[in-house]
Amino acid sequence: MTPLITPERIAETRRLIRSHVRHTPNLRVDMADFGLGERPVDLKLEFMQHSGSFKARGAFTNLLTRSLPPAGVVAASGGNHGAAVAYAAMRLGVPANIFVPAVTSPAKAERIRSYGADLVVGGDRYADALAASEKFVAETGALAVHAYDQVETLLGQGTLGAEIEADLPDITTLLVAVGGGGLIGGIAAWFRGRVKIIAVEPEGSPTLNMALEAGQPIDAPTEGIAADSLAPRQVGKLMFPIAQAFVDRSVLVSDDDIRLAQHALWDKLRIVAEPGGAAAFAALLRGKYVPAPDERVAILLCGANTTAVTFP
What we know:
The protein is α/β, with parallel strands linked by helices. The protein is built from eleven helices and ten strands.
């Protein structure tokens, strides 16, 4: 396990970015309202973060701790990471170029543009956008800000774990959606086994699930409703040993499970969550993770960049 991603460094990072990110709220709900048995569950509303997802934490950490060249920063993203880097760059006065694949939702592309970044759309999946961004870095000298396989990114996302523990010290279990693994890697590095961490992945893009079975990151499918946020080809190499040590298991949810979770969150709570942001809730709602009676469960709702609701 890398010694660079420690609770001490995460705590330092939290102090550094505190004035740049929101301390997002929590909401306690009763699962009886969703047709299940009575059970209090805490929802961490991280979709209320700047740029619409948790990614702002890692973006600000990168821009505040690394040397920034005149060419500015570049990011490859399914959408949320790009929006976060664009937002952080706008706030800090840094040029930003964001590369996204064709599967990126219009809502995420528009958000990136609204922050003043140069947006390049091309290729079918995240790996295509990453290759294009790497070519741009080689040509311009811009600083690459990786969506998940970067020490600073993991440290920034780990601040969310510190925030959850400060607000919800009695939880025993935390459900976290996984794409490349930067979020769950940072959070697991903070808790280091003090809380049971359950990874939740779409059936169409089981990156961590397949890596844990293989004992190393391997290529996984990149399909499904959450492909723009939870479908890199491989889980990150930096986070993988952290996951092996501190993630209890990975559970898989179907596209239908995720859609039902999105509808339930809107119907019962008026919460708008994008597919990736609703995946962790889907695991509990659809019985893909069944907690023991004495577990105190929290669920991370991590993103809301969607046009699912249209107002008249």
